[in-house]
Amino acid sequence: MSVRVTGLIKRFGSRREVLAVDAVSFQAPAHGITSLLGPSGSGKSTVLRLVAGLEALDGGAVEIHGHDVTATPVRERQVGFVFQNYALFDHMTVSENVGFGLSVRRADPRVIRERVEELLELVQLADYRNRLPTQLSGGQRQRVALARALAPNPRVLLLDEPFGALDTQVRLELREWLHRFHEQTQVTTLLVTHDQEEALELSEHVVLLRGGRVEQAGRPADLYENPANAFVASFLGGAKVLTGSVHRGRAELRGGFAAEFSAQALAAPGHGLVDGAAVEAYVRPHDVQLERLGAGPNLGPVGRVERLVRVGGHAKVSVLLRDGDLISVQMPHHELEERAIDLGDEVVVRLRHVKVAPRHDYVI
Amino acid sequence: MSHSVSRLGGHGRRAGRQDTAEEAPLIRWLLIGVALLFVCAFLLVPLVIVFSSAFADGLDAYLDALADDETLSAVRLTLLAAGIAVPLNLVFGVTSAWLLSKYEFPGKSALVTLIDLPFSVSPVIAGLIFVLLFGAQGWFGSLLSAWDVRIIFAVPGIVLATTFITFPLVTREVLAVMQAQGSDEEEAALTLGATGWQILWRVTLPKVKWGVIYGVILCNARAMGEFGAVSVVSGHIRGETNTLPLHVEVLYGEYAFVGAFAVSSLLALLAIVTLVLKQWVEWRAERRTADLATGAAPPTVARTVPAG
Fold first, then answer.
1. Which residues in chain A are closer than 8 Å to B190, comparing Cβ atoms?
2. pLDDT at B31 over 60
3. Number of compact structural domains in chain B
4. Three-class secondary structure of residue A362 per DSSP
5. Residue B112, in any domain of the structure
6. Is residue B16, in this structure, part of any structural domain at all?
7. Nearest residue on chain A to B208, judged by CA atoms?
8. Which tens digits make up the pLDDT trace of B286-301?
9. How far apart are CA A146 and CA A164, in angstroms?
10. Does B27 reside within a domain?
């Protein structure tokens, strides 16, 4: 019971010259939320539309709960689709919108009324049943769209950037709400988003796409902790990639950094971390520590604080290293104050936690 | 007679008002004065003359002129021609706009251009086309006379010419609205299990309702007022193939001024009613747009005004 796509291919353009989706395969577990995450142009929305049947496939297959639906027309696929701009029917009331899917299937009016009420309760819009969509706020419209998609009991719920058009405050609230909502309904859900936080918070499975291909798929923690390549590392958590090579059992990296290998990395069969091997390290902003120069033992390369911005309880610091490279640091603001680090100061940069992997020829 | 299509957006008008507020008072009044003078000379005075000439010999003479058998027959024929042309073009217009906005197919841009043909060709030529096709010496002339069917110099010719001339009006209006609104709602309906027919009736048509109404109003005004094309195919047989505009010309040619202006006043009234309706539809459509301003992609009713 899940959604499984295999080898999806989609081409666009008058001569079909643009390969938008290139052999995408993944499996979305039943009753869970799976995120299709990626930058714009990664093909994530197209994949969702292919699953819904809104676009014609150029290759591959779509399976929903064990049934091959590749040849099934949209209206018989039983998918609930929520569009980024809601796509509500503006001339119908909230109730009529929610009941639309049942009424076009000629359900009994009494059944429709009951189901509509049930869903309006669920999305907490029962008092708005007779309003027109134009009289609702963005967040309320999004909930109507969700209720409308769920009314005919779809086998899978497809959400295309559902919070994309909302401001941050509403977005965070709705994200929380969607999480609780999903706990109640347990509908297998595919969520398209470009927001890594959204994907990491909401889903139990993440498919990270770039350029129409799957870069990595798995549990959010796996992608975060064990990125398959530099792109995954930098997209999730904004890691900086430092190249280097292995010397006497440890990695010596660009900018004068060094890193020991974890026992786990060395235990992996064929890890490739032998002397002379090219490696790359993924350094996340919160895995970097700063000390004032001269405040302690000099354990790392030296740089100068170029930029310092306070964002809430955290400070975002850009440090210009001696070799001209910039490294981003994120640390609690109180730590910065305790260490008396300010703009223009000379600091020692230390890496707290680094993930080192054999280098691939990836271009970011 | 030439046709031009002008498009005015609501934004342009609003911006214009703001600009004039910044002009010096003298220039402002001068510009307003010139505009008013122009409106009076070219729009108001002719309208006043039409009505004053119609009532020159008093109300009784006016009513007598309207109650004339030939005038009444012209009214009936005009209503008949519009009554057939408008529904035909409504169905065709909505269908073609739907086709053109929802589907991609080879030759699509050629079809869009072709739809505008009746606007770009002189109405007299349009009339001649039908004479050349269906006239006694025309392509289908011998066939039609063998079957004893009369098209030219008869009612069918007038209906044909009227339909041809008003052909693009509904299509253009509805197409503009459909293109502005996109097809997300149709896709949503599709995923909810609606059939193509259900989508058309329950989603698409309600969405473009004001564009359709607007197109029909323009189409009707043009159908009732058309002179050139109808004149060529009509033959001016009194009481049989005279429409209202043609009848005005006949009466005027006979120096029956009260009659000519009385009939003209009917057409002028039709124009006024059309303008009021048009204004009302625009107001409704704009209000809808204002309602949607907070939502995504507000639809607009593009204004297509045929002149001449």
1. 54, 74-75
2. yes
3. 1
4. coil
5. yes
6. no
7. A91
8. 776 565 544 433 344 4
9. 14
10. no
Q: What is the dihedral of CA A341, A345, A346, A351, to 10 degrees?
A: 40
Residue where the block lists tokens 């680094």: A354
Instruction: List the single best residue of B181, B186, B192, B284 to mutate versus A (max A Cβ within 10 A).
Output: B192
Contact status, residue A148 vs residue A97, Cβ threshold 8 Å = yes
Domain contains B191: yes
| Residue B5, min C-alpha distance to chain A (Å) | 30
Residues in chain B: 308
Whole-number Å distance between alpha carbons of B307 and B271: 13
Rg (CA), chain B: 23
Question: Does A152 contact B192 at a Cβ distance shorter than 8 Å?
Answer: yes
Closest of B157, B192, B132, B102 to residue A146, by C-alpha? B192
Question: What CATH number is associated with residue B98?
Answer: 1.10.3720.10
Chain A touched by B284 (CB under 8 Å) = no
DSSP β-bridge partners for residue A190: A34, A158
Instruction: Report how far residue A67's alpha carbon sits from residue A155's, in angstroms, rounded to the nearest whole number.
Output: 11
What's the whole-model pTM score? 0.76
Q: Count residue pairs from A and B with Cβ separation < 8 A.
A: 77
Interchain CB distance below 8 Å, B294 and A83:
no
Sheet with A288-292, strands from edge to edge, namely A288-292, A346-351, A302-311, A314-321, A326-332
Query: CA–CA separation, B105 vs A119, rounded Å?
Result: 41
Residue ranges making up the domain that contains B201: 58-291
Sign of CA dihedral B148, B152, B153, B154: positive
A20-31 residue pLDDT tens: 999 999 999 999
Confirm whether the ipTM is greater than 0.85: no
pLDDT in tens, A223-241: 988 888 889 988 988 888 8
